[in-house]
Design goal:
By secondary structure, the chain is an alpha/beta fold. It is 41% helix and 15% strand. The protein has 17 helices and 12 strands. The chain has helices at 21-29, 52-74, 76-95, 102-107, 124-128, 145-156, 161-171, 219-226, 241-247, 267-281, 294-308, 312-316, 332-344, 403-424, 432-441, 452-461, 469-474; strands spanning 10-14, 39-41, 175-184, 189-199, 206-211, 230-233, 237-240, 286-292, 318-324, 348-354, 377-380, 386-389. The strands form 2 sheets. The chain has an 8-stranded mixed β-sheet, sandwiched between helices. A hairpin with a 4-residue loop joins strand 3 (175-184) and strand 4. Helix 2 (52-74) packs antiparallel against helix 8 (219-226), helix 9 crosses helix 11 and helix 14 (403-424) runs antiparallel to helix 15 (432-441). The two termini are 31 Å apart.
Length: 475
């Protein structure tokens, strides 16, 4: 059992809630790393004795991470207000015939006010890409089927329970197994939504677990993405702290079982139990894990905890992990550990990355200091042409060498939004809201590219170079 006393041998914990901008300034000016009110180093931290250049670099990265998190926390309520207002207006317009019809419905006294829990209420992410139908040109058994289903499940995870239930049952003709908002002990509130479906049309049946990712106006989610805190497990490596907390890490560590009688549901333990129960009823069934953004990080870390607890039976039933725009989850040592284990249990790990997406370039990537992706990526350029790459176009979002190209790509993405229906067909048509986000992308390039619109287009295009398929299989 991994408990609080033996959970990790070392850790770096950044606590933006407990610091001030004055303290951040002191951190920037100081050249001495150590324990502060908002930065805690484990007693055996290897960076305590690192070279002067590494210490300076690390201190600068701490400053950037804490500063950005601090700004997000300060903007948390305004961001939530903007997001909620935008969602309400979008649904108000759709429920009442659009912008031109809304005044008329108000005058007639027939205005329909949106209900957030209804099966017609659509999230901002859903309004950015309104496609809900599965790709009908792909059938079970096709090499692209699981990836296509995983992408649509990851997209659907941003909606409410009633919306998801209707789409899964009535449009996809699959079985809806449950929607959850899992408890985060460190935030003392539910903060990890996910849902589970079963494709009863496939043989064997396929269970899909989809974790929700970072919403456009979710300040805490963005804080998690830019956080560089980690826990180090002996013989395993350093793992992102925030993602593990969202998955169900308790203050007692990764206990194999949660104490019975608790009314709180933790993501890992609840989903594991659901999978066990379903496989006892249907022994031939298999399952896949998927998620976009932070949800992708949770999907691959779910596999890690299964490995940690030696859940061999479940691992043998896992067909694959499909992530879209996933941030980095661990260091190089953790990556080597996971590659060995994934190969041992024959688990596919397909990491989709769209060209200008900023999130796969977070948190900071450095061979000596922090986080690394540990699998080749299925990389799509801005024309949705795919190829296998060992790494993204640019390792880090804040790279100076990538500054000009990412702005040029953002400009091309805006231009492309007007001509893509003529290039690819009407199914690729983009709405005014997506174009508005692309205008924002001219200021913050890579932000609108993180939305699922481009990932949906990439998967549907199916333009992966055939000569790379063997390379992908070998990795």
């Amino acid at each position: 059992m991994i408990t609080k006393t033996n959970f990790c041998q070392n850790e770096l914990l950044l606590e933006p809630e407990n610091t001030s901008f004055l303290s951040l300034f002191c951190l920037l000016c100081s050249f001495v790393l150590g324990e502060k009110s908002f930065v805690f180093w484990g007693k055996t931290c290897s960076y305590q004795n690192s070279k002067h250049e590494q210490r300076d670099k690390l201190q600068w990265l701490q400053f950037i991470s804490l500063l950005v998190q601090k700004i997000f926390l300060l903007c948390r309520k305004p961001m939530a207000l903007v997001g909620n207002t935008l969602e309400m207006w979008l649904n108000l317009l759709s429920n009442n015939g659009g912008f031109l019809m809304l005044p008329l419905t108000i005058l007639r006294g027939r205005m329909v006010w949106p209900d957030r829990s209804s099966a017609t209420f659509t999230s901002v992410m859903g309004n950015l890409d309104k496609r809900l139908e599965l790709d009908k040109t792909i059938r079970h058994g096709n090499r692209s089927y699981n990836a296509s289903l995983a992408l649509m499940a990851a997209k659907l995870s941003y909606e409410n329970e009633a919306f998801i239930r209707i789409i899964v049952k009535d449009r996809w003709h699959m079985e809806f197994l449950g929607f959850f908002n899992f408890y985060n002990e460190y935030h003392d509130r539910p903060s990890t939504p996910a849902f589970v479906l079963q494709d009863v049309t496939s043989d064997p049946n396929l269970i899909v677990v989809a974790f929700r990712g970072t919403g456009p106006f979710d300040a805490r989610g963005w804080c998690t993405d830019v956080d560089i805190s980690w826990h180090e497990l002996e013989g395993i490596g350093k793992i992102h702290r925030g993602f593990m907390k969202a998955l169900g890490l308790t203050k007692h560590g990764w206990s194999e079982e949660i104490e019975r009688g608790l009314d709180k549901r933790y993501a890992y333990h609840t989903i594991r139990k659901m999978l066990r129960d379903n496989f006892h009823k249907n022994e031939k069934a298999k399952f896949i894990l998927t998620g976009h953004s932070l949800g992708g990080a949770l999907a691959i870390l779910f596999v890690f905890v299964l490995i940690l607890h030696e859940e061999v039976w479940l691992l043998m039933k896992l067909e694959g992990v499909y992530t879209f725009g996933q941030p980095r989850v661990g260091d190089k040592q953790f990556g080597e550990f996971m590659k060995t284990k994934l190969k041992k249990y024959n688990v596919k790990y397909l990491r989709y990355v769209y060209c200008n997406d900023m999130v796969p370039k977070l948190p900071y990537d450095d061979d000596n200091l922090f986080f690394n992706h540990f699998a080749p990526c299925l990389h799509y350029n801005s024309c949705y042409e795919g190829e296998i790459r060992q790494a993204e176009t640019s390792h880090n979002y804040f790279s100076l060498s990538w500054a000009i190209p990412k702005y040029l790509i953002a400009l091309w993405e805006l231009i492309r939004s007007f001509i893509i229906p003529y290039m690819k067909g009407s199914d690729y048509r983009e709405g005014w809201l997506m174009r508005l986000f692309m205008v924002i992308g001219l200021v913050i390039p890579g932000l609108p590219a993180h939305c699922l619109q481009d990932y949906n287009n990439s998967v549907r295009s199916r333009t992966l170079r055939l000569r790379d398929s063997q390379v992908w299989a070998e990795n």
